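Protocol step 4 of 6: structure prediction from sequence.
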Amino acid sequence: MYRKSLAILGSALALLAFTLTPMRAAQSSPPSDGYVGADACKSCHGSHYDAWNSTKHQKALGKLQAAEREGDKCIRCHVTGSPDMIKADGAKPRFPGVQCESCHGAGATHVDQAKAKSIVKGAIVKTPDGDVCARCHSEASPHYKPFFYDAMKGLVHTIKK
C-alpha cells in the first residue's frame, strides 16, 4: 500500500511539474511591447548609436542606487521600455539606459519595415519635441536642474567627425 501511494504521489508531482513548466516559461519572458533595444538600431544608424553610446543617457541606469531601482518611480526615467515592461523587468531591465526608443518610440515596426525595404513615415518619431524630454527632465525628478530643450538637444546626437 505504501509503495502504491508513493507511486501515485510521484506521478501527481511529475504531472504538476509538467503542467506548470509552460506557465513558468511564459512568465520569464514578458512581452517586449514593440521595443527592440539600441543594438537593433546600430546597424543602420551607426553614427547616431556611437554618439549616443558616449552620453549620460547611455549610462543613466548606473546613476541609480539599488533602492531607486525598485518600483518604477525612479527607474522609469533611467531605462527604456513601456511602463508594463519596466515594471515586469524590475531592477534588471532588458534595455538599461535612455536608449533610442525612449525618445523615438518603440522600434519593432520600423526595424521590420527597414528589413522589408519598405519604410513608412510615422512608424517612429524622427525628431522628438521637448515634451518627450520633459517626461523625465522635470520637477518630478529629485535631482532636477532646469532643462532647456533647444539648448540641450544637440548633446544627445552630437556626431563626432
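Step 5 (inspection) to follow. Residues 1-30 form one domain.
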